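dumping this here before i forget
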Amino acid sequence: MSSRFITAVQLRDWQAADPSLRILDVRHQVGAERQRRVYEAGHIPDAVYVELRDELAGPSTPGRGGRNPLPAVDVLQADLRRWGVAAHSLVVVYAGAGQPAAGRAWWVLNWAGVTNVRILAGGYEAWVEAGLPVSNSVPTPTPTTFTARQGRLQEATIGELPAYALRGQLVDVRPRADFELGHIPHAVNLPYTELTDIAGLPLPRERITSLLGGQGVDPHVIVVLTCGGGVAAAWSAAILDEAGVPTALHVGSWSEWIEHHPVA
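structure:
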């Protein structure tokens, strides 16, 4: 099994065996209302609700624009402590089936120095389809003293994008129809939906590198990922990271680029 993606059965087994386990429910739909009521109607037992727009993103600031800029480190640190995440915690994040929001959580937590984060393949629906129990009780985790610090993941600034694009290393993971309506000049398109199988698990490493190579992208040097608002690209970063491809995320993505730059 992938080291970044796990199955519902694995998560069930870990719940029984690992007291450090923390589960975050990050269900999110672009353009829809916040999913708190969906969470309260049923979630994986002991999962804490995390709202992407409020807790995995922050307000726009100079140098950080777009729809979902990164949160301030001190604010994110306070949230991680409130969610019960400690330095030694195993953290599992999940969204709905087909939703890339869990990838955003994976990326932001790794960026903040949380070192053991996994994504539930197939999301909440995979848990339900496995016949596992759900809950409508809201847990109250014990607060921690976690200290956020820059993790291993790399961010690309908007000023760096043209150089990466000209080298053929800027990959836009939006659906093809969105890409064709407008994109960063010289970016190539590899939709995030094509990177996983029907169960939500990453394609084999050889298939990932073949898909990149088919777009003229060198999988051995940094690939910069962009999307609409820094969510699907973060999901794609988790998959490419699993395949051993070095990546950097342009968090602001298309929504930041179009604020001040020409489009193709």
